[in-house]
Amino acid sequence: MGKDPDGTVSHRKVVLTCVVVVAAAYGVAGLLFGPTPESAPQAADNSYVTPPVQFPVRIPGCDIVEPPRDGGLSGVVFGVQEGYDNPAYPWFSGRRAMAMTDALRAALPADAEIAFASPRASLVFQPILGDDSRRDEFGSETDARATVLRGDRAGALRVAVRQSARPVPPCVAGALDERRALADGTVVDVQDTWYEMNRVRTLSRTATAYLPDGTVASANATDEAAGRAAAVPLTVDELVTIVTTPGLRVTVPIPPGTPDPPGRCITGLDRSPEIDEARARRMNAVLAAIPLDGLRVDRPLGALLPADWGGLCQVVRTGEPGEDALLSIQITTGQSLPQQDSPDDGTTSRRLADGAVLASRESRYGVSGPASSALTMRRSRTVTVTRPSGTQIEVTSTVAAADEPVSWALLESIAANPGLDVS
Predict the structure, then answer these.
(1) Which end of the chain is more exposed for a tag (fewer CB within 10 A), N or C?
(2) Residues of the chain with pLDDT under 50
């Protein structure tokens, strides 16, 4: 950075670079801010620009303001663990993620809606990446993201929570517009600003709360949106309400009855065309009305959401609490009718009266967790119905190897229900 004669600190453009880190599960894109070498090349078509910073400056709520710090932008693409149980962060678990998700959604303004999207983009708190040795490299936070709709406008929201033993950081020029001290000892920093990437300006509002129990919660809203008029969906005060919501504190007891998170939805390796929200609602009503013959589920059927690779999906836990048993329903379109003859993988198939092909398969396999190389044996039953329209419904029950999956009759009654045909 250079200092202009009027005291303005000019933020120079920095090059956006991308680092790829190989990890398990699925990819997530993020932005990490850090020092940029003075020798970094300039690139007008691949740059990041922030507003100029005035220094010295007075910031409300700050007794001392430190000078701005050099900063650059680097992109990171990394994998995340699929499971929530990470021994490096004992305060966090799948049930806490669900409790925090409920608290976050309840803290949104009454007229704010979450856009129809996959669970990972529906304000659901995600697993914490990595272990304690990589805390400084990747951070130690769980986050939830979504597009938020308010009337005819939309914008992005990201909320992150972590546990920290560090003191509240100093006030730094350019990093905040105001510091608020609350009655319970909480300190909240807020900022209303903008940045430009590749010459495209994004408006951004942030509130970060440092709570007495060691919780650090931040909420960032921007005017990034697609399909509607773009606008920052939340005010600064609304973001402050979110980050000070009691349910986001890392020491708050988890409410009784909070379920474990649902399993992750993946609809195969080939991308499927998207299925719109109106069709999803229709099929959700069909699923909710299907009798389950006494099968215990941790949440009702009828909550299909977009899957990571297209189509729709829902995963519920079955059996008694604590049992590692899942029932998944995946619906895709644009699929070709399979050959009726059974392949060599143990699948059996038959043609239904309406021309659809129903295939059944049972298998056993081993899986290993991120912290162990030992295999855990699993057993699954899958019924797949492919219709002449190209709709394919796949219903799978997965249990421990010694347990009995959901009955073939129930799996078929779900997969073969004509109301699940997208056309």
Answers:
(1) C
(2) 1-2, 5-6, 10-43, 72-81, 136-138
Q: What is the DSSP string of 72-100?
A: EEEEEEEEE-S-S--TT-TT--HHHHHHH
Cβ(189)–Cβ(215) under 8 Å? no
Please tell me what DSSP assigns to residue 169. P
Q: What is the domain partition of the chain in residue ranges?
A: 2-248, 277-420
What secondary structure, in 3-state letters, does 213-265 show?
CCEEEEEEEECCCCCCEECCCCCHHHHHHHHCCHHHCCCCCCCCCCCCCCCCC
- Look at domain 277-420 and name its CATH class: alpha beta
Q: Is the dihedral of CA 338, 344, 347, 353 positive or negative?
A: positive
Which two structure tokens, joined as six digits, stand for 319? 């059996």
How many Cβ atoms from other residues are within 10 Å of residue 2's Cβ? Answer: 8
DSSP code string of 4-33: -TTSEEEPPPEE-EEEE---SSEEEEEEEE
- Output the pLDDT for position 12: 39
